[in-house]
Amino acid sequence: GFWDFFNVFSKDDDLLSFNSSESNMLSDLEKDLRKSLFGQHIAVDTVLKAVSWFMKDPDPPKPLVLSFHGPTGVGKNYISKIIARNIYKVGLKSNHVHIFISDYHFPHKEELQLRQWIHGNVSNFPRSMFIFDEMDRMHPRLIDTLKPFLDNNDNVDGVSFNKAIFIFLSQTGGHIITNVTLDFWRKGNNREELQLQSEEMETQIFEYLFNDENSMYGLWHSSLINQHLIDHYIPFLPLEVKHVHQCVMAEMLHLNMTQDYDLADRVVRDMPVFPEEEKVFAVKGCRCVRQKLVLYLSLD
Ligand SMILES: Nc1ncnc2c1ncn2[C@@H]1O[C@H](COP(=O)(O)OP(=O)(O)OP(=O)(O)O)[C@@H](O)[C@H]1O
Description:
InterPro entries: AAA+_ATPase, P-loop_NTPase, TOR1A_C, Torsin
CATH class of the largest domain: Alpha Beta
Number of helices: 12
Family: Belongs to the ClpA/ClpB family. Torsin subfamily.
CATH topology of the largest domain: Rossmann fold
Pfam families: TOR1A_C, Torsin
Mean pLDDT: 86
Strand content: 5-15%
Keywords: Signal
Bound molecules: adenosine-5'-triphosphate
Strand order of the largest sheet: 2-3-4-1-5
Number of domains: 2
Order of helices and strands: HHHEHEHEHEHHHEHHEEH
Largest sheet: 5 strands, parallel
Organism: Sinocyclocheilus grahami (Dianchi golden-line fish)
Number of strands: 7
Structural class: alpha/beta
Distance between the termini: 54 Å
Low-confidence stretches: 1-9
Radius of gyration: 20 Å
CATH architecture of the largest domain: 3-Layer(aba) Sandwich
Helix content: 40-55%
């Protein structure tokens, strides 16, 4: 059938090695995270541990389920890409990485299609990765469809899902994370000392997820929380101006330019910041950094 056709392409050698203890894979993921992702120490530490342990486990008891939260442009999609490029040789281009955008895929809320999509992909290749963008716009019926796959079931219709990775992205709770980070900054603390437990951030996020009347369908997370299907809730902090500066410098490298610190300064100075008085954080994070940068470049 349809999935047999895909079997031709699915070989384990699509995977980068995590398996042997001398594998340098772990440090590759670590190096990449520390080099590429700015200002997200909580996400870096949590993702590094969770993904490394999961990938080294030949027989995980359940799939790995991560939920990323935070304001716009702070690296939620980007870290998913970093994870993918350290698991699969061709990264996001791998046939085993599947990105689901709520409004785009299955607009008619076809539960059966979603079910077959996940089931087919995982039976074809157990170490598949599913990224659900804009989770807060996902229809509750589709979320219900996902549940059996996330649980520690031994199998669903003869297929084990325990080696799959599910990543949920949303801005749900982003304003809480932003407020906590701002308060922490105002008290003169070092950003790197902020932890999930600091200032009751985790508790506040959970409360909000349970009572989220602002998201399109409300309560999108409550059933997932109730059943403990999500392994890690990971907050992404608003980025400070200096992090956006780092993003501009990185973008210069991508464009094969020599890095110009002062030019990066001017680009950053153009971007909206908040709060009004203190001007600490970038409103859009590192989003649109490239577009801003090219406006400062001449065409010769
Ligand atoms: N913390 C970061 N470190 C380095 N680059 C970043 C970071 N955050 C964002 N970027 C850059 O900005 C681009 C946009 O970020 P990304 O798509 O990850 O935002 P997001 O948090 O997923 O936002 P949204 O919720 O709006 O989808 C990334 O492709 C990356 O180039």
